[in-house]
Amino acid sequence: MIKAIVDADLLRKVCTERGVKPDLIRDMVSVERNLTSKKERGDELRKMLETAAQEEFSK
Amino acid sequence: MLLRMIQMENFKIFYGKNKLDFIDGDNNVVVIQGDNGHGKTTIMESIFWALYGKEKKHDKLINPTYSKMINNMAQEKGENLCAVTLNFDHDGKHYLLQRTVSTKRKNPSKNSDFTEMVKLRINGREETDIDGVIAEIFPEDIATFFFFDGETISRYAETYTSNKETIEKALGLPYLKRAHEDAEKIKKDVEKDLRGVKISPSIEKLEKEIETQDKKREDKAKMLGITEKMVVNLNTERDKLQKALDEFDELKAIQDRINDLEEFGQELDKEEEVHGQGEATFISAIPSLIVRGALKTAVEEIGNVKEQSITDRINQGRIMDQKEFLEHLITTGYCLCGSEFTGDSLERLKSMTDALKVQLDQIRPVQTDRFAWTQGDIADAMFRVKSLESEMVNLPKLEAKRDYIDDNRKRITKAMEHERENLSAHSAANAREKEVFDRLNKMTQDRAVYMSKRDELKDELEAIERGQLDSENQLRKELEMQNQDTLKLSREIDLIDRVLNSFSDIIERSAEIKRRKIEEKGSKIFHEITNKPQEFVGLDIDKETFEVQVRGADGNTVNTKRLSDGEKHVVALSFLGGIKESTSEGTLIMDSPFGRLDQTHKSRLIDRIGDLGQQVVLLVTDEDLNKDEVENMKNVQSRYLLVHDQAQKVSRIVPISGAALSPNAPKPAEVMNDPHLEHLMTLMMPENDEGKTDGGPTPPPTTDNSNKGGA
C-alpha cells in the first residue's frame, strides 16, 4: 500500500537517512492496515521491531 | 490496478452472469448507461465487495447483509450462490479475484446462515494472503477516491474541511500516523521492559543477598581484624611477659649461681675446716717445738717420776699386801703358824698395821697426781711434737691448699657480691614474678581462645566469601543476561527511534510531495474543465489544513463561497482526479459525476474525461449524458446498457458497442473450483434436505448474460 501511496524514492531516501530497512516500514504499515485490534497490532509490530533489531545486530 | 473484467453472478439485482469487459487501447472510457435503480451503484458495490468483502455506504465500507446479496430470483430458483469475479492487472501481474457467498438453508436470514469464500490467483497461482495482497495493491481507504459517485463529489464540493483527512487517507497517512503512535507505545513498553530488566527480581534478590553477605563479610572481617589484632597484642604482651619471665629466669640464674657459689663456699668451708684442722694441728705443734727443751726435761722428769712411781707402786703394793696380811692376821687372831696371837702380839700387829696405813697414805696421793699430770701432758706434748714433725713435711701442700681456699673464697665472695648486686637489681621484678606468671598463663589461655576464634572467623569468612563469590558469579551471569536483555532492548529502542523518525519524515515529506502533486494535477484538471480558465488558474491546497481553494490569475486564492455549485463540483472533481493521478495508476469509476455541472462544465469534463485516469468507467443515466453526448464522447472504448426486467425485478448488462462485442473479449468466468466450498456444502446437506422440493442445489449458472432475463 505504501508502495502505491508513498513515493518509493522518498521511502528509500528517508530509510537510508534513518538507517531503517524500507521493508520494515512497509511491513509495519501493512500491519496497521490489516489489523484493527490495537493489541494485535502492538504485538505484531513489537515482534517485527524485535526481529529487525536482532537482524541489525547479527549483521 | 487496471480492471480487465467485472463479472457478477446473481449479485443483488443482477441475475445470472453479467460482465463488463475492459481492453487496452487508445480509448480508455467505458460508459455504462442505466436508469436509476437499474444497477449502476450495484456494479460499484460489486467491486467493493469483491475486493474487501464489504459494502460501500457513502464513503464508508460496512459489512454486507448476505441475504440481500444473492439475487431474489436466483434464490427463488434455488440458486443460493452469488459471486463477483474481478480480473485486473497490477504491476505487471494478472489477478483473478472471486468472492462468493452461498447457503444451503431453506430460509436463510442471518449472515451465519451463509458461507462466504474468496479466492485469488496471481498469474494463475493461488494466493492465500488475499487481504494482504489487496491491501497492498489497492487499500480500501483510497478505493473510495477512485470509485466514487456524485454524492461523494457533492460532499467534497460542499465540505472542504474533509480535504485534509481525504488527502491524508489518500496518502495512507492515518496508517503512517497510527504506525507512529503504535511505535511510540511500543517504545514506552520497551522502555518499561528495560526498566523492568534493571529491577529484575532475581537480580534484586541476588543483590540483596550479596549486600547481606557483604555486610556479614565486613562484620566477620572486622571481627577477624579485631581478633587478629588481639592475637597480635597478646603475642606482643606475651613476648613482653616472656621477656619479663626471661628476666625472672635470669634472676633464677643469679639465684642459682648464688646458690652454686654458696654451695661451693660450703664445700670450701668443709675443705677449709679440714684444712684448718691440719693447720691447727700444725700451729698447735708450734709451741711444742718451742717447749721442746722443757718437754725433754719433762720427759726425763717423767721418766724419773715414772721410775719413782713404779717404786712407789711397788712399795704401795707391798705395804698394802703387808697391811692386808696383818689385817688378815688380826682378823683371824692366828699366826701363819697356827699360833694364836696374844694381846701384845695383836697390839703390835695392830700398831704395825696402822703404821703401814700411815705409810700407805703417805705414798698414794703424791704418786697419783704426779703421774696423771705428767703422763697426760707428756703424752700430749709428745703427740704434738710427732704431728708437727709429720706436718712439717706437708707444709707446702697446706700452704697451696690455703692459697686455693683463700683464692676461691675471695672469688666466691666477689661473685657473690656481684650476684647479690644483680639480685638486688631484680628484686623489684622478683616481686611481680607470680603476677607475671599468672598474667602470662591467662594471656596464653586468652590467646588460645582468640586464635581459635580467629580460625573460626577465618573459616566463617571464607564460607561467606565463597557464598558471596557464588552469588556474585550468579549475579554476573544474571547481569550478563540482563545486559544482553538490556542491550537487546536498547537496540530495539534505538531502532524504534529511527523508525519513529522515519515515519515522521515520511508523513511530513510525502504529505508535502503529494500535496504538490495533487495540487499540480488537480490544477491541471481544474484549469481544463473550468469555464473560467482566464480567471481561475488552478487549485491551491493549504500546507497545514489541506484545504482546497481556487487560485486566481492574480495569484490570490478565491473565497470558495464565491464559487457556484457547479464550480465547487468542478473543484471537487479536479481534486479527486488530482488525487487519483498523483497516487496510483489504474481504473477510475465515477457514478453520475455530472450532477451539479452546468452544460459548459459538463462539456469540458466530457471532453477531458479520458484524461482523468488510465481507464475511466462512467456510470450514467440518460439525464447525465444524452445520446448525443455519449456518442460524441471521445476515447469511448465500450458502451453497456443496464436492462431491467420489471416483472422479475432483475437487471442485466447488455453490451451496446465497442470492445464488449469484440471476439477478443474475455469469456465469462466460472466459479473457481473450491474443494473446501464443496465440502462445506456437503456438510450443510442434511439441513438442505428440506429444500429438495426445489430439486436440490442447482449448479451455478454458466449462461451468458445475454441469455438471462429480458429487456
**What amount of the residues of chain A lies in strands?**
under 5%
> How many beta-strand runs of chain A?
0
The average pLDDT value of chain B, as a whole number, equals 78
Oligomer: heterodimer
Structural class of chain A: mainly alpha
Number of discrete domains of chain A: 1
Question: In what range is the share of β-strand residues of chain B?
Answer: 5-15%
Major sheet attributes of chain A: none
Name the average pLDDT of chain A.
Answer: 84
**How many helices of chain A does DSSP assign?**
4
Any idea what the radius of gyration of chain B is?
79 Å
- The gross shape of chain A turns out to be flat
Rounded to the nearest angstrom, the distance between the terminal CA atoms of chain B is 33 Å
**Fraction of residues of chain A in helices?**
over 70%
Structural class of chain B: alpha+beta
Q: Which bin fits the share of residues in helices of chain B?
A: 55-70%
Global outline of chain B: rod-shaped
Uncertain runs of chain B: 679-711
Helical run tally of chain B: 17
Low-confidence stretches of chain A: none
Radius of gyration of chain A: 12 Å
Give a quick rundown of the structure.
The complex is a heterodimer of chains A (59) and B (711). In chain A, 83% of the residues lie in helices and 0% in strands.
Write the layout of secondary structure elements.
The complex is a heterodimer of chains A (59) and B (711).
Chain A: H1 2-5, H2 8-18, H3 22-34, H4 38-58
Helix pairs in contact in A: 3-4
Chain B: E1 2-9, E2 17-21, E3 29-33, H1 40-52, E4 55-57, E5 60-62, H2 66-69, H3 72-76, E6 81-90, E7 93-102, E8 115-122, E9 125-126, H4 130-137, H5 140-146, E10 147-149, H6 150-158, H7 163-171, H8 173-198, H9 201-290, H10 292-332, H11 343-425, H12 427-529, E11 536-541, E12 548-552, E13 557-558, H13 565-583, E14 587-591, H14 599-608, E15 615-620, H15 627-632, E16 636-645, E17 650-658, H16 675-683, H17 685-688
Parallel strand pairs in B: 3-15, 3-16, 10-14, 14-15
Antiparallel strand pairs in B: 1-2, 1-6, 4-5, 6-7, 7-8, 8-9, 11-12, 12-13, 16-17
